[in-house]
Every structure is written in C-alpha cells, then in structure tokens.
Amino acid sequence: MSGRAQLMWDEAVTGYDFGRDHPMDPVRLALTRSLVTALGLDRDVNVVAAKAAGESTLRLVHREDYIDAVRAASADPEAADQSYGLGTLDDPAFAGMHEVSALIAGQSVGAAEAVWRGEALHAVNFAGGLHHAMPGAASGFCVYNDAALAIARLLELGAERVAYVDVDVHHGDGVQAAFWEDPRVLTISLHEHPSTLFPQTGWPGETGASDAEGSAVNVALPAGTGDAGWLRAFHAVVPELIADFRPQVLVTQHGADTHFEDPLAHLAVSLDAQRAVQVACHDLAHEHADGRWVALGGGGYAVVEVVPRSWSHLVGIAAGRPVEPTTLVPDEWRHQVYARTRQPAPHRMTDGRWPVSWAAWDEGYDPADRLDQAILATRRAAFPLRGLLA
Q1: Which residues form the signal peptide (predicted)?
Q2: 338 near 281, Cβ under 8 Å?
Q3: 132 assigned to active site
C-alpha cells in the first residue's frame, strides 16, 4: 500500500455555484487549494483529478427519477422541479449543476477507490462532504451525496464494515438515511441540537432500522458548546464505537461550520479544536482501520477566515506533514485573498488555543450539565444496542 496521500482536486469543482448571494461561495474551495500550495503541502500528496460519477455510480444512492430531475434543471434552471428540492432558496438550480455535482461526487468516489485498492493510505476531497442530499431530493446546499456514494462504492468493492464520522455543525442526515437499514455502515454524527438548527434531525433516539439497530449514532450538542465540550463529546462517544465496530475504512466529514465565526450556526469551536479532531480521526483510522482514511470537507461559511485554514490542516494531517498550530499564514496567500475578495486574511493558522484540553468522560460526569446530559442521552440510546455499557 502506498504511504503517500491523495488530494482529489479538479479546478472545475469551483463551478458548484448557487449564485452571488448564496452562503456556499465556491471561493472557499479555491482559497483552500491555494493555501495548500502556499504551505507547500501539495509536495507531500499526489494531486489527482478523478472523473465525474456516472449514472450507474450515482444510482448506488440516488433514485433514477431524481437524477433525471437534476439533469433537467441543469439544462434549464428556470424549469427546476421544486418537488425534488431543486430551484429552492437553499438549492437554486444553475446551468451545469448536474455535471459539477457529479464531478464532486466523482472525487469522493475516486478517493474511496484509491484507499480501498491500496493506491493511497489517505485521500482527501475537501470539495465533498455534501451530506444533506437525499436519495430522491436535494437539501441543504447539497445535490448529490458524495459521502454516501463513496461509502456505497466501498461496499460494492467488497468492504464489509465502513464507519462514517461527521463533525459538521449540521446533522449528517443524508448519509444516515442512505444506510439506515444497513448494519455494514456505522454512521456517527456530532452536531448542534436539532431544536436550534437545520435539518432538525439527529436526535439521540435515531439509532437505525430494526435490522440495523445501533448503526446510527447521534450526539446533539447544546448551542454554544465550545472547544472543551466539543472534544469531550467526541472522545466520550467516537473512539469506543470505532474500536468496537473495527471498520475496514474510516470515512470522515469535516464541516468547518462548528467554528465560532461561522454565520449559520451556534457552536463556539476554534480552529485548534477542529485540528485536534482531525488528528484524532487520523489516529483512529490507524488504530482500527489499517490506516485507511477518506476525509471530506462539508459546510463552512466563514469562507475566508476559517474554511481554508481548517481544510489545509486536514490536508497536512493526511499528508503526514501536519501544519504546526503556531505557523503564520504565508504572505503570498494573504495577498491573493485580498486581491480576490477585498477581505483581510487571517495571520495565523489557528486561533491561538493550542493545545486544547478537555475532561475525559471516564473521569466522571455531571448529571446537571447540559453537555453531559447530551452525551449520556447518546450513550444510553445507542451503546447498549451495540453491546456496550452506557
């Protein structure tokens, strides 16, 4: 197996553009790619452009009538069928939507294939992580669910156990829905509580269908949760489940919208904590999945201040050359940012909170604490279904 990581990238993915006033500005992808270069990280990865996902691949997750609707909306955006979630405020139709959505999906599928076949130990597609798309509908800025498609391709190639860990601020509802009845896939999502954030799902009691009970795990975090609470919740739930499940591949989604500067949500997580979870996911892949790790992007709407730095850290970790938290942002990149966006770029690669710390769950919990209540609700709902102590 090659020890060299793959970075999936095709400049055309920046065509995933819902319009000028939409929060998901594709400049976040371009700025991430240029920061990876400015930091010299692309010298430590193989940069690969995979082909777009074809019809048969898309149908591993998506219904044929939905794919047809996306094609039709892509050809004529004014005629988008809103019954499929297309042409809405969240998912406006645009020319070429099918092609670029399939291209992003193809990068995640290509990442999964490379890791499964031993062509790379780790593979990153930060343009991916579009986890809200459902089998028959667009949702939450997501047209095709590349994360679910990557997992489905792994299963098609012969994988018997795939774990998916989603740390986006929003519930990974589309991936959960795709594998709700499939015990071969363990989905774990840590997200802001559904009572305060889209898509209003991801309650602790959502644990999988009757034939796959315990295959879905949800941690619903109170609004305002910061670094210590976020890391406490992650480490109180994820490592034990991954160790028990013993996945052959770990697929992770790293939406950057947990950050305290993100305009669309209400958690208060720093870049330092995001980096800590990225390191933890890397280590879990090596401890329990022979190092096989597919890492995806996701949400993130502080498109200059947060997203490029967070995902550049992800690339560095996957490449085996983690960017030190104290690293200054290269001046050349800061000049590019201002020239392109007329916004000032950050000066440091994190928020200056390294090393981040948290209290371990096995040291005890406070039943009156809202965060601990959330963790306990998850453990009580899901852990016994997997034969684990709550």
Answers
A1: none
A2: no
A3: yes
